[in-house]
Amino acid sequence: MEPTESASTPSGFGTSDPELTNRVFLLGAGFSKPAGLPLATELLDRVVAVAQSRWSVDGSSHLERDLERYEKFLQDTDPGRAFDLEEFGAWLDWEHTLRLRGSDTWADEGNESTLQLRWAIGHVLHNATPTDLPELYLDFARRLTTSDVVLTLNYDRLMERALDEVGLPYRRFPARFSEVYDTHCVVDSDHPPELLLSKLHGSLDWVQLPIHPKATLEVDSLVEGVRPSDDPLLGVGVIPSATLDYYYNDANAWWRSPPTLMAPSTAKPLARSTLVPLWDGILPMAYMRGSFATIGCSLPAGDPYVLRVAHHIATEIGASIDQANELPWPQTRMKVVDMRTDRVAVHELRERYRFMPSAHTDFILDGFSLDTLDQILPSRS
Prior knowledge:
Layout: E1 2-3, E2 23-27, H1 29-32, H2 43-55, H3 62-77, H4 85-97, H5 112-128, H6 135-142, E3 149-152, H7 158-166, E4 170-171, E5 177-180, E6 184-187, E7 195-199, E8 202-208, E9 220-221, E10 236-238, H8 244-247, H9 253-256, E11 259-261, E12 291-295, H10 304-322, E13 334-337, H11 343-352, E14 361-364, H12 370-376
Parallel strand pairs: 1-6, 2-3, 2-12, 3-7, 4-7, 12-13, 13-14
Antiparallel strand pairs: 5-6, 8-10, 8-11, 9-10
């Protein structure tokens, strides 16, 4: 079912409103690092500690036992290969997706270890999030406008909390509709402007509906307003921020109401995910975007679809700048922001982003910080 108006077109198109910046930001784990949240390479030890403290029976949990099975698998098939969390996640995903356990397959959302992994990741990130947000995130949010789009691969709620604190309206689903028909939907163009924050890999405060009968958990709906009856996002519930502590202290929540997030994996079952609609409308009219910036995103091999999106947006904007297209907003230089301290790492990053038009792209390799924020996103004041 297609909308009759592109959700990627800001309201007010055709005006010279300075609030119409129409930029796209792609956030990876490096965006959250300054707040003290762990990178993917730092997650495993913390996740295992959660499993040991919460679920160990007779000395181990489902997750710990599968970690041991996977290490034995590596010894038998590729001795000396270093452990990789995304490869382990793929090993679990294939077991579940292909139903290698047959009737022992635990649930539609995943087998026991996968669900424990997801809940433990959410637990680690939720508890690592500071009570008071660093000024960096508030200042970043102040420089955004409601015509911007933020695409994030992160599960944490740093971006939401920053937007809430600075009072910038936003939504976490692709489009609002005023009317829904069997063949199409009408985008609600009368709704007040709001930034789109699209959490492409899910969020630590999302759960799948309906909630398990034994789960004493009240949730809100992710989407608002009229929706197509077959919209998968109708099946996503949001845990209110006031009850997140309760949720991540419930040792049974991993199976009663596991978080709707895609755990690290080189074989993410994206095609079967309820999160697929979050990608809707990302590519159309990319040549009209005001700019494109990636922050702390290394374009990992396990997420080839992210590379597909980044390539399309960057090359479309670059071609538009070359053609000097007249738009209601300026098209400014694109940014790749990361922390790289040695020549090999810098070379690797530049190779991954080799598609970025060199004439229109700045590489900012001192990381995401207050010192680099003016380079990344100049203040509008």
